[in-house]
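User: Hi! I'm working on a homework problem where we have to compare a predicted structure to a textbook description. Could you give me the structure for the chain below?
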Amino acid sequence: MTAETSQTLDRGLRVLKLLADTDHGLTVTELSHRLGVNRTVVYRLLATLEQHALVRRDVGGRARVGLGVLRLGRQVHPLVREAALPALRSLAEDIGATAHLTLVDGTEALAVAVVEPTWTDYHVAYRAGFRHPLDRGAAGKAILAARQGKLAEPSYTLTHGELEAGASGAAAALVGVTGIEGSVGVVMLADAVPERVGPRVVDAAREIADALR
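Assistant: Happy to help. Predicted structure tokens:
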């Protein structure tokens, strides 16, 4: 460190870089060891970063990068949407259902990109900016399953009637995208999701993950 630099700022930026390099978050103890500082310093750094939504901590206490990082650059969020839109359009047209990219924002699932099919007589209205708890709906549950390591390989989650009566959903988590925790899915007015939809959603999630790497 030179006289012109800030040790606290440097440590805060190192915390963000460490969290960005992991898909599963880090505990205070793990961050303490990697930074070479005591736990009290880490707690203070995390508390400050949380106030700016740059870091969030899950129910297990693991720290992760927060969506505030995306808000730092106004062009980042549109770029995420832009990268996802081709695969979402293809998915929506192929399945005939509303397709969406959903990211984690604190304890909620946040739809950041939505594409509705053009050829159907009716479909579920679903808008970018829609939020719901992570433990309700296919989008959030797919993320939780991936977070808890329940998915040995890319798979999908199905739900019915959890966010809207009569609507079913299918979603697959994004895998291998550093700093982004989310899922890709579809929502449709149906009592059950047709068999071919789940694998198709997994393919779209892979395509979007590749585009975001």
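For your comparison, note the following. Helices lie at 7-20, 28-35, 39-51, 68-72, 76-95, 138-147, 197-212. The chain has two domains: 7-65, 73-212. Good luck with the assignment!
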